[in-house]
UniProtKB/TrEMBL annotation:
Belongs to the zinc-containing alcohol dehydrogenase family. Residues 8-347 form the Enoyl reductase (ER) domain. This is Iditol 2-dehydrogenase. The lineage of its organism: Bacteria, Pseudomonadati, Pseudomonadota, Alphaproteobacteria, Acetobacterales. SUPFAM superfamilies: GroES-like (SSF50129), NAD(P)-binding Rossmann-fold domains (SSF51735). PROSITE patterns: ADH_ZINC. It comes from Paracraurococcus ruber. Keywords: Metal-binding, Oxidoreductase, Zinc.
Length: 349
């Protein structure tokens, strides 16, 4: 089979690999959709010879990228409980593998495993930008017939990440939430927060992304390149600030603005990867009783809950996708995605 490999410095190659065979406890998926996530760009842009950090297991040779895999079980290895997987089953992948036995792993948070270097499918172990993917059966999350494979790919990371952050913030209809960044994760957060009953203020420097945020239900939109976003948020909240803020951009400037746009007793969540922020503790946090939390993706349980919420509320997750691609178009697809002016892309098989 052929799969997409990043070489660094915005170079990629479609390389040949052996078709995978499931080992003990593993399954092989026939891919149907593999989403493109903003965090892919960090690997795509990284200098040649440099790999992602964060204590991950070292990769053995070229790695097929793509960590939003969704497909159908094509083969089941020995030792797999039929309640976990059977041929023909529609599934998403929770794209992490830890030791599987510690408390974090057993509660669905394998990415937080402290016992072994974590495998991340699409990062240091083969991912979904290929016709087939071999993963442990314990990473599978069922995909309801009422959701498309494209929706499953979105939920497998970008939309699931937005869900995890909003749950961490405990967003409800009592809240005004300002969401900084309206890329795929930010737009997903806008969709989900609106469905949770919150009033959403969407922020981005792209007029096209702000227009999409309106289409997804944002009550107000702000372009920080045209105005002071903190003051604009206060003007929209009777001078008080927002109960909740969420930064998906990883921009240092946006992060501190997200903190300063909070209401007294408000909570800010950082979800964008990388970057720094400098906080003046007394005026920015202490004297406003502000809380700052972080949210790294979601649990396997949360992924399934997110899918059920989307199904029950009829949320049009497929509308996130502005481009669909074939594997042969990978170079063109990532060139466009790298501009960060378009929406979300997905490879279909």
């Amino acid at each position: 089979m052929r799969g997409v490999v990043f070489h660094g410095d915005r170079e990629l190659e479609i390389m040949s690999f052996p078709d995978p065979t499931p080992g003990f406890g593993e399954v092989v998926l026939e891919m149907k959709a593999s989403g493109m996530c903003g965090s892919d760009l960090k690997q795509y842009r990284r200098p040649k010879g440099v790999r992602q950090g964060m204590g991950l297991a070292a990769a053995d040779g070229p790695v097929i990228v793509g960590h939003e895999p969704c497909g159908v079980v094509a083969a089941v290895g020995p030792g797999v409980d039929p309640r976990q997987a059977k041929v023909g089953q529609r599934v998403m992948v929770h794209h992490y593998q830890g030791c599987t036995t510690c408390g974090h792993c057993r509660t669905g948070w394998q990415q937080l495993c402290q016992r072994v270097p974590v495998k991340v499918y699409g990062n240091n172990s083969h991912g979904g930008h290929a016709p087939y993917l071999c993963v442990p059966a314990n990473t599978l999350v069922p995909l309801h017939e009422g959701l498309s494979f494209q929706a499953g790919a979105a939920i497998a990371c970008g939309t699931g990440t937005a869900w995890g952050a909003l749950r961490r913030l405990d967003v409800s209809g009592n809240d005004t939430i300002a969401i900084f960044g309206q890329g795929p994760v930010g737009l997903s957060a806008t969709q989900l927060a609106v469905a949770m009953g919150a009033r959403v203020i969407a922020l981005d420097i792209s007029p096209q992304r702000l227009e999409r945020a309106k289409e997804f239900g944002a009550a107000e939109v702000i372009n920080p390149s045209n105005m002071d976003p903190v003051q604009a948020i206060r003007d929209l909240t009777h001078g008080l600030g927002a109960e909740k803020t969420l930064d998906t951009s990883s921009s240092p400037q946006a992060r501190i603005q997200a903190v300063r746009a909070l209401k007294v007793w408000g909570t800010c969540c950082f979800v964008g990867e990388g970057g720094d922020v400098t906080i003046d503790v007394s005026p920015d946090m202490l004297r406003r009783q502000a809380s700052i939390v972080a949210s790294w993706t979601f649990s396997a349980v949360g992924q399934e809950e997110c899918a059920q919420f989307i199904l029950d509320r009829g949320i049009k997750v497929d509308a996130l996708f502005t481009e669909t691609w074939s594997l042969d178009q990978a170079e063109e697809a990532y060139r466009l995605f790298d501009t960060q002016t378009s929406g979300k892309g997905v490879f279909l098989f």
